[in-house]
Design a protein that fits this description.
Elements lengths: L1 E3 L8 E6 L5 E6 L6 E2 L2 H25 L16 H9 L11 H4 L7 H14 L3 H14 L16 H10 L10 H6 L5 H18 L2 H7 E2 L4 E2 L2 E3 L9 E3 L22 E8 L2 H9 L3 H8 L4 H10 L6 H15 L7 H9 L5 H14 L1 H17 L5 E4 L5 E5 L2 H26 L8 E6 L2 E7 L3 H20 L10 E6 L6
Antiparallel strand pairs: 1-7, 2-3, 4-6, 5-6, 7-8, 9-13, 9-14, 10-11, 12-13
Helix pairs in contact: 1-8, 4-5, 10-11, 10-17, 12-13, 12-15, 13-14, 17-18
């Protein structure tokens, strides 16, 4: 099922929602995503800022690394370009652009090197090595000096040249030059942290900028209208394409260019740790449910469990976050160090990862039991048939072929069900906030545009409907887990 916006007109759309009787019912509404407002001037300024920062980082890389070895200046008689350049330097008219014998033979009386060049080629064809060597020495001895070779800097987009440069610094990058390998060495030499920043900025410059906004932004309305896919992922969450607005990076300046028009505001509301909450409910895990019920920071609580420290540091909290999200869907202990470095930029050695892994499942008995049940059922059936899994309101996904997916679908799928139901409930309450327009759904977040004088009311309605919808989906039966939504009103869509 696809939701596609057409200009600013509301498109009648069937939004499929599973009710609490486990029946798939179509909810028909004149629901539409009104398009995302983009400030073109700020977007272009953001691109220029990224380019300037990229140039500055590249200059710093050049300052802190060895110069690239340069090729020696000289004539190469066996190349395509050098013989012609040599003859031009010896008097061959510039309009002659070929060294074919029939073309240059008429110049032999005026340019002695031409005759030697023709003889050299004949000797090469005849495989007369001695004669070819003699003629090459004669030509190069009589040739004018070759032009100096312009300095060539390192091509930082070339993995091979980055690897060569790292080698000159004393680092053997035999496993490649991808982000993870750079992260492993970022504290060993300034080059690696600068390369990471250069690649981040290069991606921003290449992906966004003038081409992006010219292609995707309607010049009349100043809005971007992605195609929204209601079943855009295997778990049933929304996705979008052309452009993929959901991938607009949190870091960098482009989010600040998503700006409400004059007299309007943006209201954003984001489910707080919804996957961890749903997992705590599905498992169920009494410790997690208690922490959520009392409003405690789940990452700090996990940090206390795995470090035996009642006052964990900021880095320990981040490592606990790695554990919470990394282990949720079956990640192995040996995969945690790379995951921690790639996703959270924190070091986690193998021994630490194994100790945290063991401590986590020792303390989070509910999560451990859930994983054990899933493993037992999955591996008992995988050689016979693929397993099916259901969200909390019974939406089935058939033919799941991996344990990670078996753990993942009930959690992310339920979050997707709740988000779609929230969109329906908000649409039904638009008569309370008539200026509001739903403009985007990004992972666990809804983005709404409205009049300035109605913004606080819109925030109240949006938060209320999101909590109500997810609560109805998640807490229809069994142990309850509090649903929290973080919201704010702002002129621009900026992540804090």
């Amino acid at each position: 099922m696809v939701i596609v916006t057409e200009g600013q007109r509301p498109v009648p759309t069937i939004l499929w929602v599973l009710d609490l009787e486990h029946q798939l019912i179509p909810v028909v509404a004149r629901m539409h995503l009104a398009g995302v407002p983009v400030d073109r001037e700020e977007w272009l300024a953001a691109e220029e800022k990224c380019r300037e920062e990229l140039y500055a980082v590249e200059a710093r890389i050049e300052d802190c690394t060895p110069k690239k070895p340069q090729p020696k200046s000289g004539w190469n008689l066996d190349s395509r370009a050098d013989p012609l350049a040599l003859l031009h330097a010896s008097g061959l008219p510039e309009e002659v652009t070929s060294t074919a014998e029939k073309v240059i033979a008429k110049y032999i009386p005026d340019i002695p090197l031409i005759e030697d060049l023709i003889k050299y080629r004949k000797a090469k064809r005849a495989k007369d090595t001695a004669e070819a060597d003699r003629l090459r020495d004669k030509i190069l001895g009589e040739a004018p000096p070759p032009p100096p070779i312009p300095y060539q800097p390192w091509n930082l987009r070339s993995p091979q040249q980055v690897k060569e440069l790292a080698g000159l610094l004393g680092f053997d990058m035999h496993d490649g030059t991808d982000e993870l390998e750079l992260l492993k060495r970022k504290d060993a030499h300034e080059f690696f942290s600068l390369m990471l920043e250069a690649r981040r900025l290069t991606k921003l410059v290449d992906t966004y900028g003038v081409n992006w906004i010219d292609k995707h932004c309607d010049p009349e309305t100043g809005r971007v209208y992605p195609s929204w896919w209601q079943w855009g992922t295997t778990t049933g969450r929304f996705a979008c394409s052309n452009p993929n607005f959901q991938q607009l990076p949190n870091e960098g300046p482009y989010r600040s260019c998503i700006r409400a028009p004059e007299g309007r505001m943006l209201v954003s509301a984001d489910y707080s740790q919804i996957e961890l909450r749903i997992a705590a409910k599905i498992a169920p895990d009494s410790g997690m449910l208690e922490a959520f019920e009392e409003g405690r920071d789940i990452h700090i609580e996990t940090a206390k469990l795995i470090t035996s420290n009642d006052s964990p540091s900021g880095e320990q909290r981040t490592k606990a976050k790695v554990i919470n999200f990394g282990l949720l869907f079956g990640m192995r202990a040996e995969s945690l160090p790379n995951y921690a470095l790639r996703e959270y930029k924190v070091p986690l050695d193998e021994d630490e990862a194994r100790n945290f892994y063991d401590a986590y499942f020792k303390e989070r008995r509910g999560i451990a039991s859930w994983h054990d049940r899933e493993k037992k059922e999955f591996y008992s059936k995988k050689n016979k048939k693929c397993v099916d899994r259901y969200t909390l309101i019974g939406r089935r996904r058939k033919d799941i072929r991996s344990l990670n997916e078996a753990l993942n679908h009930p959690v992310q799928g339920t979050a997707g069900d709740g988000m779609k139901y929230a969109m329906v409930l908000f649409d039904r309450r638009l008569d309370e906030v008539p200026s509001a327009q739903l403009i985007a759904t990004v992972h666990d977040e809804l983005l709404v545009e409205c009049d300035e004088d109605e913004a606080q009311k819109v925030e109240e309605v949006l938060r209320g409907t999101m909590i109500e919808a997810m609560d109805e989906v998640v807490n229809a039966e069994g142990p309850k887990v509090p649903i929290e939504v973080e919201s704010k009103v702002s002129k621009a869509w900026v992540k804090e």
